Amino acid sequence: MKAVILAGGRGERLRPITDTRPKPLVPVLARPVMDYCLSLLAHHGVTECYVTTHYLEEHIRSRYGNDAFGMSLSYSHETKPLGTAGGVKVLQEHLLGEDAFLVMSGDALCDFDLTRALNFTETRRPT
Asked: Among residues 17, 77, 81, 82, which is most buried (max CB within 10 A)?
């Protein structure tokens, strides 16, 4: 299973915290928010994750490298912010042929049963 994490935003509303770090690396309970995202995806069977970046990209690459939480990570740097759909569109060739893939915000803190959601959508697909 593949996933895309959108991690390019500037986090203007969190300034001055985000003056020196990207919003996905803002800590919650001493861990960056993106740690929780990656952990959740790995727990639900994601093996490949694409991370879209823009603002302070090097901080995210430096923290996670090419492997985190047992998943391979690839990065798609946006020279200008492309928004949610634009970030996914750029990765289209990597996602083609997948029955399903997940898209998650890198600053989303949640505990959601992704497996259950995927199973639900699978039962609703037209044959």
From this structure: 82
